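Risk register update: the risk of archive-format incompatibility is retired. Evidence:
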Amino acid sequence: MMLASQVKDKAPTKRDLEIEDDNMLNSLKNQGLLEGALIAVKWDVLDKEAGLTSEVWFKGKIKNFLGFEIHLLNSKVFKELCKPLVPERFATFSLDYEELDEFPACTKKIGFTENGKMFDLEEKEYLSWIFQSELNNVQTSDPEVSISDLIKEQELLDEEFGCVHDEGLSAFKMLPHEKQISLALGYREFADYVKDKLREIQAKKGSEHVFTGKEIQDLLADLLAKKEQDIF
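Archived output:
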C-alpha cells in the first residue's frame, strides 16, 4: 500500500507526459493556435533619431510545431522580488514574420503556454499577440513620451539649429527693462505652477514615477484654460 505523499511525489510516467502534451496541444488548437494560423505580434520599436518608442504590430504565420520545452524564467521582476527561477512549459513553433518597413522578413522560435500566452524563446520575453483578423479593432497608441525623451529631442534640435535657450536669452536682453521684468515675473509664476502640479502628480503616483508627454500636455492645457479665465 502506498502513502498519499508517495503518490504525490511519484515521477510522471511516459504515458502521463504524452497525455499532458496532447491536452496542451488540444487546448491551443481550441484557441485557434494551429500550424498556418495568421497572427500579429506587438513589439516596442525604438525610433533612434527621435529617441521615442512606439508599439508596432508585426504580422506572422505560425509554421512548424517543434516540440515541447521547459524554460526557467529569469525576468527582472523575479530578481527584484528575490524569487527563485520559475519553470514554464511551452509548446514551441516557428513563426514566419512578414517584412515591414525597414524590418526584413524573418523566422523566430516562439512558445505558447497552455492558456495561450506567447513567449519569444530568443528574446526571452512574453509578447502580446492577436489574430490578424482582429487588427482593425486595434487602436494604435501614440508613442509614450517621457521628460527624458523630450530633453533628448530638444538636444538634437539644438545641435542642428542652434541652442533655443541662447537665442531666447539674446532676444530677451534686447527688450525694454520694464518688459524684461514683466516677462521674468510671468515666467516665475508659470514655473512655480508647473512645479507644484508635478509635485502633486508625483505624490499620487510615487517618487519613481516617470512623467509622460501626455501628462505635460494636459498640465499645459489646464494652465492655458486658467489663463483664459484670468485665474492664473
